[in-house]
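#struct-help
A.M.: can someone run this one for me? Single chain, 447 residues.
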Amino acid sequence: MFRSRVIALFVKNNSKALYNVRASRVSNEEATCKLFSTGLTRKCLHSFPSFSKGSYVSSIRNMSTVASVGIKDKEGLKFLVNGGPRAQKMIGIWLFGSAAWVFSMVILGGATRLTRSGLSMTDWKFTGGLPPLSDEDWLIEFQKYKQSPEYKRVNKGMSIEDFKFIYWMEYAHRMWGRALGIMFALPFSYFLRKGYITLQLGLRLSTLLALGAGQGLIGWWMVKSGLEEPSSEYAQPRVSPYRLAAHLTSAFAIYCGLLWTGLSVVMPEPPAESVAWVHGAAKVKRLALPVSLLVGITAISGAFVAGNDAGHAYNTFPKMGDRWIPEDVFDMKPLIRNFFENTSTVQLDHRILATATLFSIVALWWSTRKFDIHPAVRSLIGTTVGMAGLQVTLGISTLLSYVPVELGTAHQAGALTLFTLMILLNHIVRKPSPSLLKSLPQVAKTI
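D.P.: on it. Structure tokens below:
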């Protein structure tokens, strides 16, 4: 139903959109130079140390030429936004802001889990509600929590002041998510009515909006599993690791969709100044795709570590206790359960995946050293290697320190940061449009 509204609005505003595109042709090159010379873009480009002043100016000029060619000859190049560079910039800022909001949601969710605050609210409403405002309201909420397995087995005797802390953590996490929904939906409606959003972009954003709404349902589905009595009288109440992994995977998918779409809006073409650099980027892409998949799998395996409290076991490195491989890694039946529910196996898997991720990223850097590629691509690969090393260091430090909240949260932030860099790398090595490819020289000009 929502998609049909998007299509209807698109058709209704189509004439306005075409008018805006025609108007943007007049001063396209000048406007595009302005778009790519904003403070944000300059900061991103200057963050690459290998960008000399000459190459920066050359890149800006080339991007302007690319956009100009795209307007005059749209063969193989489809813009996601109508209305020219100003509309591109507005929608780009909105999408990047939404992606940053999701990033903060993931970090806040990690802190909520690490402080064991996630089970403090025992009910859920899609629209939310006001927090307790009086002592009587707080007592009612506290009484609800006292009926939960977590209070009875873990927090029995907790003071109401301590309860307020964990309640506020969970409440903030939920309301921050609802605020994101509003912050995304209102500008989306505005841009639709202005005719800035194409049909392709509208359908993509509608899907992301639906995923965001579903994320709240997945979150409650996860929390609900922790409010049930554990099967063993000796087990601590905790959420299902499967549901926790689903919640984190959904968050990563939404973040990836927002970031990729934002990049596609502000940068319709990848940075390319020669056919040789395009061929080099294609070689990098073939290596970067499997590495990106490994980074994502490693991050999701971390959700199973968290869901099984596996970080509080075997707090030694590189060995697990006094052994390289614990004896009980295949104790559960059927065998497949060990990889998701066995504390020893889950932690061993995460160690192996993290090590493989680090080595694969280093191998990516080593393999591309002699490739003829754009300086931005080379610099981004180097940055990714540094981030991978930092992330492994954070993971080991978190384990050896028995998972303090600060390090655990930083480790989760590091995982999403590394994932971000891989998204950026895959985006800038994608294939350019045929119209741009035809206009490129065989070798990049040096200044």
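A.M.: thanks! The radius of gyration is 25 Å.
D.P.: also worth noting: Residues 14-76 have pLDDT under 50 and may be disordered.
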